[in-house]
Write a structure and sequence with these properties.
Residues 253-269 have a biased composition (Basic and acidic residues). InterPro entries: Ccp1-like, Haem_peroxidase, Haem_peroxidase_sf, Peroxidase_I, Peroxidases_heam-ligand_BS. This protein is mostly helical. Helices cover 43% and strands 2% of the residues. The protein has helices at 40-43, 48-54, 56-62, 90-107, 110-121, 144-147, 156-168, 174-188, 223-234, 238-245, 255-258, 290-297, 307-310, 316-327, 329-345, 370-373, 381-393, 406-425, and strands spanning 32-33, 66-67, 252-253, 278-279. The strands form two sheets. The protein has a two-stranded antiparallel sheet with strand order 1-2. The chain has a two-stranded antiparallel sheet with strand order 3-4. α5 (110-121) packs across α8.
């Protein structure tokens, strides 16, 4: 257990052995080509471009956006190549959420699910622009090389709990599954509803995992400075640091994994789930503002207070928010929900680019020519997004013209010459 991101340990004892990532490639059963064709009359491209783009050979070479599933061997987590632009299926995500709720209610694994999502997203570095080098919520935590980072001790148990769901729903990325489990755990523990969006793309291999050392430590020499170094690198501020720290209201720290906490206390010796560890709060499976109250009072020796916890009431800037949340749970819930959603999006690449929510799944707008032929009408936002995506896929952007398509120009010239020849011959 290290620091504010490393907040929880598994609730249920998992008997299976350690997970070992392999490099074996497993064929996907869900492989298919993702293509979309815009109306040439709308985007200003010649009508024959539609035919050219939809041709299988041309599509293969110029639009290789393939969708595949990730398969897992019985012996452990198998890492297969994942192409860019893997889209999570909204309906499968909804079903996966129902399965996650069932796991939460039977294994009491809320804290470790929160921690899993946080640690996948918490490697984000705002100073790096390239994906996936910038880290963040990209599913890289499923690989053994990252699981072995000191801050991720024990998270293999969360992966074991989620892997059957991933096997069941191949149309869901690991990146989305981790964040879905994290947000669902907060809500199921009595916390606020998180305004989540989905559509995260997975990294393809362990070579794309971030280097170790991006997650916070629980006992640094300068706790306030350390928290700011780590969270500012992610683009988060003091209010968000304190709000996110409040998630320690869930879970326990286990000394055999983190080096912090007691082996057991009167609050943890009987479980639920696997007994042991030391919790920050008495009801460590209930999400509320008890963390701030207990840290402020510090009257119970059976409750854990890390250096990074205590500093929230010692640092002048942090203290403003910590005092507020100790008095006002509603304010804490509101700020926490916003901070959690922001954290879950850090570094992620979305497909579609704007992402989607489970409550408002985007339905592609059907193009009806008659709607735009008789009079001037404003295009809907969804149609604008579709046209923009098609334009950018061909190399265009708002600040640069679409590059010339010489192949298309040659076809047009040949067609004009053929027509002229025919007319002159007649």
């Amino acid at each position: 257990m290290t620091g504010s991101l490393h907040l929880a340990q598994p609730m249920a004892s998992v008997s299976r052995g350690p997970v070992v990532a392999t490099s074996r490639l497993i064929p996907s059963s869900a492989s298919r080509i993702k293509l979309s064709i815009c109306s040439s009359s709308l985007c200003g491209l010649p009508s024959c471009l539609k035919c050219i783009r939809s041709a299988p050979l041309v599509s293969h070479f110029f639009f290789p956006y393939e969708r595949r599933s990730i398969c897992v061997a019985k012996s452990g987590f198998s890492t297969v190549s994942v192409p860019k632009f893997f889209v999570s299926d909204p309906e499968q995500l909804k079903s996966a959420k129902e399965d996650i709720i069932e796991i939460l209610r039977t294994t009491f694994c809320h804290p470790i699910m929160v921690r899993l999502g946080w640690h996948d997203a918490g490697t984000y570095d705002k100073n790096k622009e390239e994906w996936p080098q910038r880290g963040g919520a990209n599913g890289s935590l499923r690989f053994e090389v990252e699981l072995k980072h000191g801050a991720n001790a024990g998270l293999v148990n969360a992966l074991k709990l989620l892997q059957p769901i991933k096997d069941k729903y191949s149309g869901v990325t690991y990146a989305d599954l981790f964040q879905l489990a994290s947000a669902t755990a907060i809500e199921e523990a009595g916390g606020p509803k998180i305004p989540m969006k989905y559509g995260r793309v997975d990294v393809s291999g362990p070579e794309q995992c971030p280097e170790e050392g991006r997650l916070p430590d629980a006992g640094p020499p300068s706790p306030a400075g350390h928290l700011r170094d780590v969270f500012y690198r992610m683009g988060l501020n003091d209010k968000e640091i304190v709000a996110l720290s409040g998630a320690h209201t869930l879970g326990r720290s286990r000394p055999e994994r983190s080096g912090w906490g007691k082996p057991e206390t009167k609050y943890t010796k009987d479980g639920p789930g696997a007994p042991g560890g030391q919790s920050w709060t008495v009801q460590w499976l209930k999400f509320d503002n008890s963390y701030f109250k207990d840290i402020k009072e510090r009257k119970d020796e059976d409750l854990l207070v890390l250096p990074t916890d205590a500093v929230l009431f010692e640092d002048p800037s942090f203290k403003i928010y910590a005092e507020k949340y100790a008095e006002d749970q509603e304010a804490f819930f509101q700020d926490y929900a916003e901070a959690h959603a922001k954290l879950s999006n850090l570094g992620a690449k979305f497909d579609p680019p704007q992402g989607f929510s489970l409550g408002e799944v985007p339905v592609p707008e059907r193009f009806v020519a008659a709607n735009y032929s008789s009079e001037k009408r404003e295009l809907s936002e969804s149609m604008k997004q579709k046209i923009r995506a098609e334009y950018e896929a061909l190399g265009g952007s708002p600040d640069k013209p679409l590059p010339s398509n010489y192949f298309l120009n040659i076809i047009i010239v040949i067609g004009v010459l053929a027509l002229l020849t025919s007319l002159l011959g007649n």
